[in-house]
């Protein structure tokens, strides 16, 4: 981990006084934004036709942001509704990242944006309708991740970590070629963890900033395709470009805790989600199916205390692989495994794999990202402008039941 006072490949300008406040209420103004954003009355009354460029969840999966060829839009999940939108005359945004439900957003322009090119990140305060910080880089920004005390900018070969208060550079991390901008953060107040590709194929680098500890995990033989952390950053789920296996690791010592199988055929993994109670794992892929797996990691026997704190203590005090039994439980809702698993010494490995507990089938013509909602529900957003809410049986599993469906944007490709 390298600490720098100023980056060699970026220019940062900032306005003092970054102060997040509430955003996204029913009374949040739509028209009248000053600065580069503006909406005319005719635009407010049109069909909303635009090209959808990106979708991303906020940190608690209660909202999502959509970057379009005309600007960005923010949607609430429960109840589902468009909260507000901002349009930009000079073009749209390829990356839009929310900070929980506050007024601060990170925006990266699309290639067609004449004012904000893809190598520039702006930190936008929607409450004040102004830009409070700009970052200019020599190469295209691949991803941006936010937490209350950090701004993380992902380029193809480097990751910059900034202090949110004054936007000063704290760390820079070198990675293997990372065109998809793979990176994830913990969001618990008491832990500060970042996971990203390492410098070797199949390797994940985990930074425990609060402990000043770097852990390198050999997760797969193939390149990393997708990864995600639990809220406290103590568990990591990964998939490779093969897309057949998802592995769960202890980020403190790099131990593999569990392995589940999405399928036998190669697949592109679009998203991995871990439920807040650390009981479930959701995976979406180009096969048109969202798979739900049961996690076998103990989070404490008493469900009333904070499960994150209980799991944190269990993982932090784990010193050897012999203590893994205390972290693994069978419990209810176990993933099915092959009836031929007793012959696993003879048959191929996939016959003894843990398969998905529940499934939901989608059109396989577009990219979907999944997340967990309340009460054993899953919310799914598609790059075709579709939103699904479905529920699963936590005891019997099987096919999930669709509860809601909305078309939140009509894209130009669909017109």
Question: What does this molecule look like?
Answer:
The chain is mainly β and 415 residues long. It has 2 helices and 31 strands. The protein has helices at 41-44, 307-316, and strands at 2-3, 10-14, 52-57, 63-68, 71-77, 80-87, 93-98, 104-109, 120-125, 130-137, 143-147, 150-154, 158-163, 169-174, 184-185, 193-197, 203-208, 213-218, 224-229, 235-240, 245-250, 256-261, 269-274, 280-285, 289-294, 358-361, 368-373, 377-382, 386-391, 398-399, 401-407. The strands form 7 sheets. Strands 1-14-13-12-11 form a 5-stranded antiparallel beta sheet, with no helix packed on it. A 5-stranded antiparallel beta sheet has the order 2-10-9-8-7, with no helix packed on it. A 5-stranded mixed beta sheet has the order 23-24-25-26-30, with no helix packed on it. Strand 15 (184-185) and strand 16 form a beta hairpin. The longest helix is centred in the C-terminal third of the chain and has 10 residues, at 307-316. It starts with a strand and ends in an 8-residue tail after the last strand. The model is unreliable at 1-9, 19-47, 299-331 and 338-352 (pLDDT under 50).
């Amino acid at each position: 981990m390298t600490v720098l006072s100023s980056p060699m490949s970026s220019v940062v300008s900032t306005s003092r006084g970054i102060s997040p406040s509430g955003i996204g209420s029913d009374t949040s103004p739509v028209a009248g934004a000053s600065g580069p954003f503006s909406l005319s009355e005719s635009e407010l009354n049109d069909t909303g036709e635009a090209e959808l460029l990106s979708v991303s969840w906020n940190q608690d999966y209660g909202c999502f942001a959509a970057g379009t060829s005309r600007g960005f839009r923010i949607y609430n999940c429960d109840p589902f509704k468009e909260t507000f939108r901002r349009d930009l005359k000079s073009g749209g945004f390829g990356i839009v990242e929310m900070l929980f439900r506050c007024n601060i957003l990170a925006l990266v322009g699309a290639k067609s944006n004449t004012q904000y090119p893809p190598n520039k990140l702006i930190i936008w305060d929607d409450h004040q309708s102004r830009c409070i910080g700009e970052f200019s880089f020599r190469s295209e920004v691949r991803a941006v991740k936010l937490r209350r005390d950090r701004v993380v900018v992902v380029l193809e070969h480097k990751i910059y970590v900034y202090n949110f208060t004054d936007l000063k550079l704290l760390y820079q991390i070198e990675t293997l070629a990372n065109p998809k901008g793979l990176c994830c953060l913990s969001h618990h107040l008491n832990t500060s963890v970042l996971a990203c590709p390492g410098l070797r194929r199949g390797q994940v680098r985990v930074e425990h900033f609060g402990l000043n500890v770097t852990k390198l995990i050999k997760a797969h033989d193939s390149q990393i395709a997708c990864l995600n952390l639990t809220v406290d950053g103590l568990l990591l789920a990964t998939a490779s470009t093969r897309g057949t296996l998802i592995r769960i690791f202890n980020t403190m010592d790099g131990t593999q805790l569990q392995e589940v199988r999405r399928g036998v055929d190669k697949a592109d993994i679009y998203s991995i989600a871990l439920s807040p109670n650390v009981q479930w794992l959701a995976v979406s892929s180009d096969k048109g199916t969202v798979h739900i797996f049961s996690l076998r990691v103990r989070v404490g026997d008493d469900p009333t205390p904070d499960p994150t704190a209980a799991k944190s203590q269990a993982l932090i005090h784990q010193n050897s692989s012999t203590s893994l039994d205390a972290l693994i439980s069978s419990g209810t809702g176990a993933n099915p495994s092959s009836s031929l698993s007793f012959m696993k010494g003879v048959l191929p490995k996939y016959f003894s794999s843990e398969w998905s507990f529940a499934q939901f089938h989608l059109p396989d013509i577009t990219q979907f990202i999944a997340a967990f909602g309340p009460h054993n529900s899953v919310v799914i957003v598609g790059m075709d402008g579709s939103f699904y809410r479905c529920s699963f049986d936590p005891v019997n599993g099987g096919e999930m039941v669709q509860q809601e469906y909305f078309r939140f944007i009509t894209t130009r490709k669909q017109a």
